[in-house]
Amino acid sequence: MSKKNSRAPREPSKIQPELSPARAEETPFEAVASICSVLVVGLFILTFIAQNFVIPSGSMEKTLLVGDHLVVDRITLAPPAKWMPLVHYREPRHNDIVVFIKPVAEPEPDAEGKPQYFFLVKRLIGVPGDHIHLRDGIVILNGVAQAQPHAQPTTSDNYQEFLDEFPSVPPYPQTGGATEGWAVDFPNHVVNGDLVVPPSMYFMMGDNRHNSLDSRFWGFVPRQNIVGRPLFNYWSYDTPESVYEQTGVAARIAWMGHVVLHFFGGTRWSRTFHLTR
Question: Are 205 and 132 in contact (CB under 8 A)?
């Protein structure tokens, strides 16, 4: 005699469909807050960490060309800050390429009467305590001739006594570009034919040695004027120096139009992301 299954048949399980969570609509306030946070982060990076600079003159050729657009590290050479203890800082060193504010006694006012500061890019030749002189264009640093393959060589064609035998010929205001203040202060820093770099000061020169207005013309750069060091070229466009000498709105618009039309042909692609050394 067979036994009947006393268990009741199981009902098929009811599968609950998964409900996707309702997508919350972003409020106008949240959208504005998001945009502002991005802008704040971007402004922080451009102000304190990295900044864009463009090369307007040929004083650093062939290392840097007119029309090179650089990303500049503003942290490494900055004075150490207690609020960023984990950041690597160091003092400027020989042969660093440095961005700095041109040292002037009184900045010239702009059209609105505000002080106008000029950013320059040069190579650091002397640090505090160094003894410097040039002989036939060769830098003699603390009695040792420096091998500087990046610098424009001195030849019989480009030789200039003031530039190539510095500081044997004192700078005068009449010496193309020399400032009056430097001409007066200059003798105080010459010892036995060497220029001695004072504390907290630096001596800068352009790589294009015979076409560079640098420390030979306007003196030392104070430590606080040093802004940073270029890292690399993010874009380089073949640009004549005269473009950066034109300040009118019409000239700028015309040049922007030129760049748009000739972007691919005028861009120096081989210098894109080129490291600055």
Answer: no
**For the chain, which domains are there?**
52-275 (2.10.109.10)
**245 or 165, higher pLDDT:** 165
How does pLDDT run across 99-141, given as a tens digit for each residue?
999 998 776 776 677 777 889 999 999 999 999 999 999 999 9
- 242 included as an active-site residue: no
59 given a catalytic annotation: yes
The residue annotated as part of the active site, out of 57, 122, 215, 236, is: 122
Of 59, 212, 215, 236, the active-site residue reads 59
